Amino acid sequence: MSVTYALEITREFAAPRDLVFKAWTEPERLAKWWGPKGFTLEVKQLDLRPGGMFLGSQRSPEGHVMWGKFVYQEITPPEKLVYIQSFSDEEGNTIRAPFSPVWPLEILNDLTLIEHEGKTTVTFKGGPVNASPEELQAFEGMKPMVQEGFKGTFDQLDAYLAEQR
Fold first, then answer.
1. How far apart are CA 123 and CA 13, in angstroms?
2. What stretch or stretches form a coiled coil here (predicted)?
3. Per-residue H/E/C for the chain
4. DSSP-assigned beta bridge partners for residue 109
5. How far from the centroid of its chain's Cα atoms is residue 117's Cα?
C-alpha cells in the first residue's frame, strides 16, 4: 500500500483519552459530532475490529445525503486508530466522490491520542492510498478546504466532549 501523508492536524482536548477514543469508536457518540457543521450523521454499521467497517450517511441542511465508510486497519485502545476512508453507496461499496471524478478513492487516516494531565492531544494524519498523479493533485488542491473541514469537525468534537464532563 502506497500512502502519501499530505495532511496533519494536531489538537488538544480537555478530556481524558479514554473518552476521546470512545467518541471516535462508539456509534452513538460518533453520531453526535462527526462531519461538517450543520450535517447529521446516521450510523448504519460500526464493526470495530481490524477489517471491520463503519458505514454511515451524512445529511446536509438542504437534505443532500452522502454515504461513507471507514475500513479499520489498526485499533489500539485508547491510543491509536488507523482506517481507510472512502465515499460509498448504502451497501458499503466504494464509489467516487460526488464532487470530483479525480478525488482519491481511498484516504488512509492515522489517529494517535496522547493523554497528559487529563487532557488529550490528538494527532490526525491523512493521505491518499495508491493514488494516481491526478488524484494526488486533486487532494493537494483541496487540502486547505479539507483542513478547514476537519477544524469544524474537531470543534464539534470539543463541544461534545465538554458536554460529557
1. 11
2. none
3. CCECCCEEEEEEECCCHHHHHHHHHCHHHHCCCCCCCCCEEEEEEECCCCCCEEEEEEECCCCCEEEEEEEEEEEECCCEEEEEEEEECCCCCEECCCCCCCCCCCEEEEEEEEEECCEEEEEEEEEEECCCHHHHHHHHHHHHHHHHHHHHHHHHHHHHHHHHC
4. 83, 126
5. 26
CB atoms under 10 Å from CB of 99, counted, come to: 10
Q: What residue has cell string 484516504?
A: 107
Closest CA to 154 of 135, 126, 116, 129: 126
d(CA 95, CA 81): 23
Q: Is the pLDDT of residue 4 over 80?
A: no
State the Cα–Cα distance between residues 22 and 29, nearest whole angstrom: 7
* pLDDT digits 0-9 by tens, 118-150: 999 999 999 999 999 999 999 999 999 999 999
Under the banding of pLDDT at 50, 70 and 90, the label for residue 165 is confident
User: Hey, what's the cell of 90?
Assistant: 448504502
- The pLDDT of residue 5 is above 80: no
Which residue has 488542491 as its cell numbers?
A: 141
> Cell triple for residue 18?
479514554
Instruction: Spell out the domains of the chain, with CATH numbers in brackets.
Output: 7-41+72-86+100-164 (3.30.530.20)
